[in-house]
């Protein structure tokens, strides 16, 4: 059976090439695009594909094809949802927050002495393990058999005993909830869709693009799509230049491992995968089944124009990164792909590096590729911010920082603010660090019976605190209480502070009493709104506004929905649980995102290509990320059980690196130190440098990846003063009647050494505040 399998090379903008191919396959018919269904890995990819169509049509109107993310699916959104005989009656998926609370209950039932916040953290790890087991279709009933077959340490047997929560108690609890796990439901939806399309192939085109089939259920669906007459699977960056020996030696750490698994599942050879180009794009419904000739059916924006010559067609394809790649034999800019593919060669066959010659990979592969090594993370962030700022000097030029190092991303975002640039950061920020989240935490800390002066001050100096007054009056009262009560050796009484403490009584009085979680949440919200109320606005209006307020109120509503039947808990348990769950909530800005600058993680950057790609934090632990410590299984146990090894993440990270580093202009950055310790360069960077040395492009005297501009020097100059002029020493000259008439003997030396100290003490009457709770 013929399989419709294509690939888009990594040096071509994937989504733009996909949009171009579909537009040309539709022969410029603005209505013909609607006949297709396009399956993409994520919702972000769907949004960017819409933008790619907009660029391709030059702002002309058209009806776009239906776009559906594979990573976040719902059977009601699939085409078979309308076919009642094909649509299975699936139970709804349990919400993540409800599942975490239920698993927390089960963990506490097994170990009552465990703190509630620790149980919630363990429940999150247990949910991730459950998802992984269901994605890989492993059988939890084999856990006991796994322990019996292996000569394992006693703590692993205890761990497997603990996992009886998932084999015994959890299925019963799910049945009572009338729900199933999200991963299990996604598997069933994909399986039902594959079965429906296998029996009744749709008459409309179905194109799955950008997925490598990392999940077994996804691989099966892609196999069905590739077999359909109107189906096509488009792979991201299949390496067709890698020699067969190296291809057979590919393991989990190689960037092509996932794609190799997929094409073996589909049952095709690598040479049979076609290049997605103007001569191979599958036609949409109603178009010429034999394909089309771009020279004959040249259409721009739905308006028929004169067909260009073959030479002009190829020239247009070469100049625009938004258009399709040329056929394999006519491509010019694939030297970078060969360089990166060679650097990722499996370790078993790296002896081929000894025989590399410049003729194998021309030096043009290095055009637009550079590396910058900095002394520390702050300097790296400064250089990256300067690189991104320089891009904005060119109209319509785009840039993206891609890194999995969140601290580096936050540093760059903060440094861009010096130019009043708010970059589009896909990673977002923890709600606990935002005004609404931190205010809710401060309210709880101050309401606790053991609250100290620091807890009260943290709340009273929060910008959302008003206590029924104007903001200025509230801050003034807070300063008076701080000086006269908490920083005084002889504390005074404060009626205002006593009245404030009375507002905490609904929470403080019941702190040690076990209460339902719903009641704890309700009284917490009421107290927060009361403290946020000013003399002009209600607390709810001030507290729940903006992105962080909307995110907080939505999360609290979800938490109230999920809190049913949770065991009674004290105030101390509630504050621990609240803080743990709040730290997992991510806030992403809805407005104010920069249209040309983005800060992305490797996952979000897949299928997206900017004019300038900055790959930051290229150190071990970031590229690739450190393999997390699995609390549930050792490596041999995971292998026997059927779960992927931690090295699989290295392969995914390597695929991301190759895809991103194939862009026309790429800057690789790393810092030599982090904290007080030296860093280790990323293995991807070391492998690339090894290949460059083997080719003779780099040696001890020459660095082939040296940038053309001194970015690190420019970054340092940003904060260097233009001239250094020391200021004059202070010379206070108070009037004679204000001067002290006597000084202690020790103050005479201070007078000669630092006259301003005498002026501050005896004339200005300044004194250092007493410590808190003096």
Which percent range fits the helix content? 40-55%
Mean pLDDT: 85
Number of strands: 18
Cα-to-Cα separation, first versus last residue: 84 Å
Question: What's the quaternary structure here?
Answer: single chain
* DSSP summary: helix tally: 31
Query: Strands of the largest sheet, in order across it?
Result: 3-2-4-5-1-6
Tertiary shape: globular
Low-confidence stretches: 79-86, 285-333
Task: Output the structural class.
Answer: alpha/beta
Task: Give the biggest sheet.
Answer: 6 strands, parallel
Amount of beta strand: 5-15%
Radius of gyration: 32 Å
How would you explain this protein's 3D organization?
The structure is a single chain. The chain has 774 residues and is an alpha/beta fold. The chain is built from 31 helices and 18 strands. Strands 3-2-4-5-1-6 form a 6-stranded parallel β-sheet, sandwiched between helices. The protein has a 6-stranded parallel β-sheet with strand order 9-16-15-10-14-11, with helices on both faces. A hairpin with a 2-residue loop joins strand 7 (299-300) and strand 8 (303-304). Helix 13 (335-343) packs across helix 28. The radius of gyration is 32 Å and the shape is globular. Mean pLDDT is 85; it is low at 79-86 and 285-333.
Characteristics:
six-stranded parallel β-sheet, alpha/beta, 45% helix, globular, single chain, 31 helices, 18 strands, 774 residues
Which helices and strands appear, and what pairs or packs with what?
Elements: E1 5-8, H1 14-25, E2 37-40, H2 43-56, E3 66-69, H3 96-110, H4 116-135, H5 143-149, H6 154-162, H7 164-177, H8 182-199, E4 206-209, H9 216-227, E5 231-236, H10 244-248, H11 257-266, E6 274-275, E7 299-300, E8 303-304, H12 310-319, H13 335-343, E9 369-374, H14 377-391, E10 399-402, H15 406-416, E11 424-425, E12 429-430, H16 435-447, H17 453-460, H18 471-486, H19 495-503, H20 505-508, H21 517-532, H22 539-543, H23 546-562, H24 571-582, E13 586-587, E14 597-600, H25 602-605, E15 612-615, H26 635-641, H27 647-661, E16 665-671, E17 673-674, E18 677-678, H28 683-695, H29 711-718, H30 745-753, H31 755-763
Parallel strand pairs: 1-5, 1-6, 2-3, 2-4, 4-5, 9-16, 10-14, 10-15, 11-14, 15-16
Antiparallel strand pairs: 7-8, 12-13, 17-18
Helix pairs in contact: 1-2, 3-4, 3-7, 3-23, 4-8, 4-24, 8-9, 13-28, 14-15, 14-29, 16-17, 16-21, 16-24, 30-31
């Amino acid at each position: 059976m013929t399989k419709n399998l294509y690939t888009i090379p990594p040096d071509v903008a994937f989504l733009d090439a996909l949009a171009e191919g579909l537009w040309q396959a539709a022969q410029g018919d603005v209505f013909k695009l609607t006949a297709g269904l396009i399956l993409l890995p994520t919702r972000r990819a769907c949004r960017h594909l819409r933008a790619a169509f907009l660029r391709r049509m030059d702002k002309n109107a058209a009806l776009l094809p239906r776009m559906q993310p594979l990573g976040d699916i719902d059977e009601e959104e699939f085409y078979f949802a309308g076919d009642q005989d094909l649509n299975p009656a699936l139970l709804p998926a349990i919400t993540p927050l409800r599942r975490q609370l239920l698993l927390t209950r089960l963990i506490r039932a097994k170990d009552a002495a465990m703190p509630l916040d620790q149980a919630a953290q363990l429940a999150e790890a247990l949910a991730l393990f459950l998802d992984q087991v269901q994605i890989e279709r492993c059988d939890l009933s084999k856990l006991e058999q796994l322990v019996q077959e292996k000569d394992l340490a006693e703590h692993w047997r205890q761990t497997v005993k603990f996992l009886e929560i998932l084999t015994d108690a959890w299925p019963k609890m799910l049945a009572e909830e009338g729900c199933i796990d999200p991963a299990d439901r996604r598997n069933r939806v994909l399986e039902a869709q594959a079965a429906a399309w296998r029996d009744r192939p749709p008459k409309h085109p179905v194109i799955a693009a950008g997925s490598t089939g990392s999940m077994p259920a996804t691989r099966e669906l892609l196999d069905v799509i590739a077999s359909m007459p109107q189906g096509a699977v488009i792979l991201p960056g299949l390496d067709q230049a890698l020699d067969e020996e190296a291809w057979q030696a590919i393991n989990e750490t190689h960037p092509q491992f996932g794609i190799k698994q997929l094409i073996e599942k589909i049952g095709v050879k690598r040479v049979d995968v076609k290049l997605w180009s103007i001569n191979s794009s599958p036609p949409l419904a109603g178009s010429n089944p034999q394909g089309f000739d771009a020279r004959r059916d040249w259409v721009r924006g739905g308006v028929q124009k004169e067909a260009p010559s073959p030479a002009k067609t190829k020239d247009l394809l070469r100049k625009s990164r938004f258009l399709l790649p040329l056929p394999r034999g006519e491509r010019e800019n694939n030297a970078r792909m060969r360089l990166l593919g060679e650097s990722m060669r499996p370790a078993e066959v790296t002896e081929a590096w000894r025989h590399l010659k410049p003729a194998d990979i021309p030096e043009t592969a290095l055009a637009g590729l550079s590396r910058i090594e900095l002394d520390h993370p702050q300097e790296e962030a400064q250089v990256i911010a300067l690189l991104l700022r320089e891009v904005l000097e060119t109209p319509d030029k785009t840039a993206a920082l891609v890194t999995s190092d969140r601290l580096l991303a936050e540093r760059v975002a903060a440094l861009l603010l010096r130019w009043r640039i708010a970059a589009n950061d896909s990673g977002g920020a923890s709600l606990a660090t935002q005004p609404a989240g931190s205010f809710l935490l401060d309210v709880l800390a101050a309401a606790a019976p053991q609250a100290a002066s620091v807890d009260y001050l943290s709340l009273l100096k929060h910008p959302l605190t008003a206590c029924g007054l104007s903001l200025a009056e509230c801050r003034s009262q807070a300063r008076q209480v701080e000086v006269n009560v908490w920083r005084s050796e002889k504390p005074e009484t404060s009626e205002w502070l006593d009245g404030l403490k009375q507002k905490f009584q609904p929470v403080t009085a019941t702190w040690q009493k076990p209460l339902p979680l719903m009641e704890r949440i309700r009284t917490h919200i009421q107290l927060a709104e009361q403290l946020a109320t000013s003399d002009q606005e209600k607390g709810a209006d001030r507290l729940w506004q903006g992105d962080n307020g909307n995110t907080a109120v939505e999360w609290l509503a979800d938490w109230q929905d999920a809190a049913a039947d949770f065991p009674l808990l004290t105030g101390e348990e509630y504050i621990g649980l609240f803080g743990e769950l709040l730290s997992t909530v991510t806030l992403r800005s809805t407005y104010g995102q920069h249209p040309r600058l983005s800060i992305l993680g490797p996952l979000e950057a897949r299928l997206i290509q900017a004019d300038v790609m900055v790959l930051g934090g290229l150190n071990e632990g970031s590229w690739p990320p450190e393999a997390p410590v699995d609390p549930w299984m050792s490596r041999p146990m995971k292998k026997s059980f059927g779960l992927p090894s931690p090295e699989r993440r290295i392969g995914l990270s390597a695929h991301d690196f190759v895809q991103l580093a194939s862009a026309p202009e790429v800057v690789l950055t790393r810092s030599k130190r982090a904290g007080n310790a030296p860093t280790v360069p990323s293995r991807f960077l070391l492998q690339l440098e090894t290949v460059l040395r083997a080719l003779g492009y780099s040696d001890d005297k020459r660095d082939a990846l040296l940038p053309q501009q001194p970015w690190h020097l420019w970054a340092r100059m940003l904060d260097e003063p233009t001239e250094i002029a020391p200021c004059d020493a202070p010379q206070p000259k108070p009037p004679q009647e204000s001067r002290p008439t006597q000084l202690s003997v020790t103050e005479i030396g201070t007078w000669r050494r630092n006259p301003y100290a005498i002026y501050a003490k005896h004339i200005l009457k300044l004194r250092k505040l007493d410590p808190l709770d003096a």
